[in-house]
Every structure is written in structure tokens, then in C-alpha cells.
Amino acid sequence: DLYAEIFNKQRRNPNGCDIKATFHVSHKYTNYTAVQSMHRLGHEIASHSITHREGESFWSDATVDDWAQEMAGARLIIEKFANITDNSIVGLRAPYLRVGGNHQFTMMEEQGFLYDSSITAPLQNPPLWPYTLYFKMPHKCHGNLQNCPTRSLAVWEIVMNELDRREDPTVDEDLPGCAMVDSCSNILSGDQFYNFLTHNFYRHFDQNRAPLGLFFHAAWLKNNPEYLDAFLFWVDEIIENHPETYFVTQTQVIQWIQNPVSLEAAKNFAPWQEKCSPELRSECSTPHSCKLGNDKELPGEALRMHTCIRCPNQYPWLNDPLGEGIF
After folding, report:
1. What distance in Å separates the CA atoms of residue 48 and residue 198, rounded to the nearest whole number?
2. pLDDT tens digits, residue range 257-310?
3. Taking the model in full, what pTM does it have?
4. CB-based contact 47:22 (threshold 8 Å)
5. What is the DSSP letter of 31?
6. Cα(188)–Cα(120) distance, integer angstroms
7. Among 46, 253, 227, 218, which residue's Cα sits nearest to residue 131?
8. d(CA 115, CA 98)
9. Measured between alpha carbons, how far is 252 from 211 in angstroms, rounded to an integer?
10. Strand 131-132 vs strand 156-157: parallel, antiparallel, or unpaired?
11. CB 184 within 8 A of CB 165
């Protein structure tokens, strides 16, 4: 299993805790037993919408209510069916990274989300630290027809700094950067990927130590074993050679920015010690594999949903996120 291989309990931060990550979860086809397991192991779960519906313009133009239904609704579904009861789902990422302007961020304020991580910053040196939207964004609204927020909002932005994908940054001509690792289409071999990771790490490390966000779809590593090998080799090398580097969740990044501590004190920084190294065990004795329909919202579809809790009456969706079958 991909995640068991990456988070193998041997890879530890300098404070002795397991390395951690954030998983942005959309609803359809999600195995909530697995989500429950990742949460128990100390990883962060964030919202990535219920429908992940196609048509990028929908997300750019969605109303405050649309965003609430999709993102707060997804949070409800995850909390119930992955049995997450600690109010830790505080972040979100927009499908296709299509930012929803003031509507999206107004919804986030109203629904108590802490941060978004959908806005891309163009490739620049030095890269940007996460920022709040109390003030104007510290970079231009980047991307094709993006709808960035334009007023003061009480939300953090864990900005997606574009990564430098040039093979040899000393001589190659400028290339546009890429925000998602798996959209850097010129990575064609494990060696190239290793060099890409190393160069971008030092671009952050040697300049201003802005957190280096490595954003993937799991399938990219799953379908390319050579990239996975290169990635794990690089992670192990960083852990071995850089005792000042931690692999943490997005919320943990914000917790450090809000209360920065020295390198020495970081080893005892409480927010980075939560769920330090939980033991591996199965989540529930008999996970339910629920075969469900939802005639009103998904007519004709039969969907399977895996969860440790009792199967709902129907497949959860926008108008019935708890699957109660009552509208």
C-alpha cells in the first residue's frame, strides 16, 4: 500500500515523531475506513468537495451557498463516516485549483475553516511564506481566468509556490513553474525527479526557508514506481542530512508561524508532537462495505462506500450529506 510504504514508521522527524502529511479528500469512491486510519496515525484530513464536479467555471462562479454545500458538506461526510470527532478538518483545496473569489473565502469565514490551499503563486525567488487574507495578496492573481479574493478576510492561504522544473537551473532558459508536482510534465525519469526535488528544496532552504509544499495526486506515485523510489530516496536523504527539516501537515505549518520557536525548541514544540507515533492497527473489526443508491440526486447509480460505522440509508450527497434519506 502506497501510504504504508511512505509513512513506514521508520521515517521520523528530528523530534522523534513520524513524518506527517495532509490529505485533501473528495467524496465519491472514497474509502472512509482508510481515511479514519490516516487520521488516527496523525495525518491531517482536509476537504476537497463532495462532487469534484467537472466544468471549472462552476467553481470560479459558485455562490457562497454552493461552496458551503460542497466543502462544509464534505467535512460533515468525512467527520461522520471516518469517525473524526476532534474538529480537525479546518483546511480545503478547490477542485482543479479553481479559486472561488470572495464567495469561497466568505464561506470559509462563516463555516470556520482556517485555511485554503488553492491559490498558486508564480515561480519567483525567494518563494512565498503562507499569508493571511486580512491584507492584499503578496503576488498577482496567477493562472488562467482565476477568481482571487479582493477583500479582507479572516482566512489563511497556504499558497502553492510554483516549483522550478528546469533540469539545469544554471543554464536552462526560463520555463513556467508548476504548482502540483504531477503537473510538471517534463519529469520523465526517477533521476530527473530526484534532481527536481533537491533543487527546489535548496531554493527554499538557502533563501528564506519558506515551507516547501509538495502536492501530488496519489495515483502519480502509485502508477510510476520509479518516481516513488526517487521520492523515498530523497526523503530519507533529507531526514539524514538535515536535522532542521520537518515533514509536517499544513495546519502544523500555520501553528509554527503563529508561534515560532527555535530549532532547539522545535523538538519539544507541542503542536508537532500530537499523535507522535501511534501504533498500527486495524480501525474496526468488520469494516462495512455499503452498496448504496441515491435516487433523487444520483439516479441509476449504485455506489459502494467503505466505513467503520453503520451504513447510511442512502449514498450521501449534496442535499443529504449524512445519507439519512430525508430531504
Report:
1. 29
2. 999 999 999 999 999 999 999 998 888 988 999 999 999 999 999 999 999 999
3. 0.96
4. no
5. B
6. 23
7. 253
8. 15
9. 11
10. antiparallel
11. yes
